[in-house]
Amino acid sequence: MEWIPVLAYLLVVGAFTALGAPLAAALFDHLPRRGAAFALPTAMVPFAIAVFWIGQLTFGLHTLLLGIAAVLALTAAAWRLDARPDWRAVGVAYGVFAVGFLFMLSFRAANPAITPQGGEQFLHFALVNTLERANSLPPEDMWFAGRPLKYYYGTQMQVASLSMLTGTALRYGFNLGIATFYGMLFVVAYGVGGAVVSRRGGSFRIGGAFGAFFVALGGASTTAIRLLTPYLPEFLAGPVEQAAFGFVARRFEGGDLAATVTNLSDPFDWGWWYTRYVVPGTIQEVPLYSFVKADLHGHTFANPYVLFAGALALAYYVTPPEEQKRRLALVFGGLGAVAGLFGFMNTWSLPTAAGMAMLAVGAADAHPSTLLPDAWGERLRPETAPEDRKEWLGHELWRVVLAAVVGVVVLLIGVVVASPFLVFGHVPSNEGIGLLPPRSPLPAFLVMYGGLLTAFGVYLTVQGREAVEELPGEWLGAAGVLLVGALGFAALVENAAVLVLLGTFILAGWLLVRSGRAGFAMVLLVAGAGLLLALELAHAKLPLIANPRWNTSLKVAVQAWTLGAAGAGAASALLLREHGGRLKEIATARMAPSGGEDGSTPENVAVLSSALVVLLVVAVLLVSATFPVMMFAAEVGGPVEGGHYDPSLDGWEAVEGFHANEYDALRWLKERPGKPTIVEAPGDSYGWSNPASTFSGLPTIVGWDHEAEYRSQQAYERRVGYVETVYTGDWDRAAVILDFYDVRYVYVGPNEREAYDGIRSFEREPFSVAFEGGAVTIYEVDQSTLPYEGDGDS
């Protein structure tokens, strides 16, 4: 195990945490512990934005130091405003980060290899390698030489930055970056859960533990349901099998449902890979799945910042109305900055930051108009609080409209912050937004989200019981009519039940928040449900992806889990505190020498209702815990038990183990200075294709067929033809291509020999052997001796 890089990362993260603590104290002054758990993302957000902007001119270690200087300037300003952190709490938060960091490190150490099978590790490792070589941003596309990268690269930029700051080789920094961002998610979830529960009279530590568990460890209900399926009574087994296993059977087993059930319900042959294939036509993950999968995907690494956006929304929610400047800083400075980071890190999260701004401003006691100067705000603000319920409803709708305007402004701020990427042509091609995609069938949806929705439903019922009792008859009648209409809609329209269920939960939850009967845990639950509802209503239209919801579900559902699970964790802690405490009090009273209560009907009802709440919450906990237990047993426990757990963080492990005949050649290329262009055979995604550019970060004429999505099918195929010409075609034409792309090295390895029959001899004047070893020969091109210098064709 490479412990020196681990210690280096812990030291650098500790420095960022200390650097961000005063700034966090300024932003989160009204939260318990002054936002100590949010110190790390509070520093990382401005650091990443500063590096991104300075990097448009120049990129390197000096850029990273300037980024740190920018954070230091903000911290100094916060210190001058008398923002003093709770340093003990900061130390505790750093310890929580370390727990999450080391937990994920145990996964990566068990299987550190960077491989192309089943994921996009090759794409992301190539990106961090090319970023390390970059002189400015965006870097040259390593799989489309001569053109700037056309992919959001904020995640890889941060991973490369940490590697460069610590002096760690990226073969280790790749895996350490995964553990670092998981640790950040872990500590932010701890901070959000702790703050929400503490503000409602509970224990910060217990709330934090529930938050970290539900968000970063907890899994969907899928694993528990699949493992329990063989033990279900026959009348239940059939519908459950179809809901829990049907999509996997159709996609991977040729429709053989019985075989799929047998394979995926066996705990001794369980695999986590198939747990995201539940709702037909989608892939939906939870954060632990995404991190263990070990891509540097933006939708994975953005989740700590998604929840940080939730923390900023919470800070706004609790800030008194009279502190206008702090509220402005939180919503437009804090959430605006996070939206900007999402713009070049994971564009799919940009609307989420705007949505959290809208929810915070709409839910807070302070009227949205108070964000404006008094002269403007008074025109938009009702003069008095409405007493009539009809008037109250109109005022609430107006509040939502103004909050939506604030969300749009935050969205625009994000676009401006990320404008070098979003505005100036570096966004992958797309065809806009599509509406009303195929909807999710309710049974499969409940297999995935049953636990989360149970926590939401129980909290909604408990918090809303008194509100229902207080409603006048006409409101109850109207609610009944709406409910009957919704149920009729769900019954008549195919797969509309999920829409009705989520819509009902969202509306009821929001009304409870605005009535003061539910706090910020409900806001987070509404946010998560809102993102899941969005998947039922809209999708991104992407070229070359026939399934309309495939990519959208992958990128959005994990954000829904992150926010919704944070709310479910806090809600579960609060429910156990209240109803577990009530059961304890009643039991203590009955066992007292005086005899306690008389066992009256009201008391018995209270005991039964509290016992039911506790039972449901415990059931949700157990269901959520099944996934991380099974995953840890499979990925870490198995190798330990088998005696072959040999922990390492070396991402090149697979090359040494399975492609040793190319290992020395790839290392030689990695050591080349600058950014010389190479040529190698392109290949299909998810295979051992383009290893030379992937492991070196050097640009090649064309790489994985992902580029057809980013550029166009025509542009991709044209370059594929150019590469074939270099290896097998007319020499004069090949010389033009080598000259136009300024190719320095021609890589001839196993892929090239397999792809091109009759590969040319490179024993001619422009070529010399620069490296030869294993199964690879690398030729160096002398551009000055090429027979032709032409205009070429990009």
UniProtKB/TrEMBL annotation:
Coiled coil: none annotated. Pfam families: DUF2298 (PF10060). InterPro entries: DUF2298. It comes from the Archaea. Keywords: Membrane, Transmembrane, Transmembrane helix. The keyword Heme does not apply. The chain crosses the membrane at residues 6-28, 35-55, 61-79, 91-110, 172-197, 209-229, 301-319, 328-348, 397-422, 442-462, 474-490, 496-513, 520-538, 558-576, 605-627. PANTHER family: TETRATRICOPEPTIDE REPEAT PROTEIN, TPR-DOMAIN CONTAINING PROTEIN. This is YYY domain-containing protein. The lineage of its organism: Archaea, Methanobacteriati, Methanobacteriota, Stenosarchaea group, Halobacteria.
